[in-house]
Amino acid sequence: MPNPFAGLEHLTTAVILLDQDLRVAYLNPSAENLFKFSRKHVIGLPLQQAFGETEALPKAVESALLTRASFIEHEIILSTPGNQTLSVSCTITPVEIGSISLMMEFHQIDKQLKIAREERMQMQQQANRELLRNLAHEIKNPLGGLRGAAQLLEHELPRTGLREYTQVIIQEADRLQKLMDRLLTPNHLPHLRLTNIHEVLERVRSLTLAETPKGIVIRRDYDTSLPELAADPEQLIQAVLNIVRNAVQSMQGKGEITLSTRVARQVTLAKKRYRQAIQVQITDNGPGIPENIREKIFYPLVSGREGGSGMGLTLAQTLINQHQGTIECDSRPGRTCFTLLLPLPDSQGAVHE
After folding, report:
1. pLDDT per residue over 273-312, tens digit each?
2. pTM listed for this prediction
3. Which CATH number does the domain housing residue 103 bear?
4. Contacts of 280 (CB under 8 A, 6+ apart)
5. How far from 184 is each of 177, 214, 298, 311, 326, CA to CA, in Å?
6. According to the model, what pLDDT value does residue 237 have?
7. For residues 317 and 125, is the Cβ–Cβ distance under 8 A?
8. Taken in order 243, 245, 250, 254, is the CA torsion positive or negative?
């Protein structure tokens, strides 16, 4: 018996057909690949059961049924069986093919969103650099004068016990001077050499375990077959260390951090397409990043911790970007994951998109 949907089998567009009860009657291989569905497990499921809790998709279906015309939803966030989220555009068209009542066509838009997000991040980084230059200019001169005046005052004090107060001024001035130096240090370009990413992560792991309480566990999940990459190992150590230290501080001395590595294929970094990149993920089971600052965590002077300088993640992002890489964060209570992508040397022949 001929397959009535044979024409949909070879489409690159993900297609799902629903019957009159809004149950999945058919999905093509592209839909299986996009949503990581198994056809035999999905067919017969109600739409909402197949995609989990999402309000936008049932509303779009309802609109198409009410108007009996194609309905387009330009951006819907859908959950897959592996708890991954996808941003897709969806066209829903009423049809009459036997028991089939609706045809749903999906196009993944994560790629376009990622490029747009990278462009916003680059603009923000430029604004950050301008802010840092202005900040350094405004603070350095009066800071030096403040420290010098405290030193002169120290020599004029009649009792040595009073020098405790001038020492506070001098020490705080020195602390602010070090902060200014940290703000400006990332402007130095990396000194690239072939680097094993696992040596970087092991250095971070040993440093972190040496300075943290015994309640912190750091697990490894490495793909040891990964090749070396062109990088400045000291800068990568600093970037990863800043992220791990943030995780440790957020967990308040008790929790688990996982360092994992994988190869990522066909990735777009700064509008360039690379055949391969190294993916590093730093995952913790802490309380998560406060919702009110999740979109701003890479901005300078933004911190979710009382007393934090708000510079650790800004510096990490700058250092990773100087390696033509990207850094992103996904956070919710109980799980925060920072994902670093770094292009590999054999994929430097990237093409502009």
Report:
1. 788 899 999 999 998 888 877 777 777 665 555 545 566 7
2. 0.56
3. 3.30.450.20
4. 197, 201, 240, 259, 260, 261, 339, 340, 342
5. 11, 34, 16, 11, 20
6. 92
7. yes
8. positive
For residues 344 and 227, the answer to whether their CB atoms sit within 8 Å is yes
| Residue 334, Ramachandran bin (φ over 0: left; ψ between -120 and 50: alpha; else beta) | left
Which of 130, 159, 187 is where one domain is finished? 187
**C-alpha span between 5 and 280 (Å, rounded):** 41
Beta bridge partners of 46: 23
Q: How many CA atoms lie within 13 A of 129 on its CB side?
A: 12
Which pair of structure tokens corresponds to residue 146? 């403040």
Segments forming the whole domain that contains residue 292: 189-353
Burial of 186 (0-12, 13-18, 19+ CB in 10 A): buried
Contacts of 348 by beta carbon, 8 Å cutoff, 6+ apart: 230
**Does some domain include residue 1?**
no
Query: Do residues 24 and 102 make contact, with C-beta atoms less than 8 angstroms apart?
Result: no
pLDDT at residue 49 is higher than 90? no
Which residue blocks in 185-232 are alpha helix, DSSP H? Answer: 197-211
Strands 24-27 and 14-19, by their bridges, are antiparallel
Pair (350, 207) in one structural domain: yes
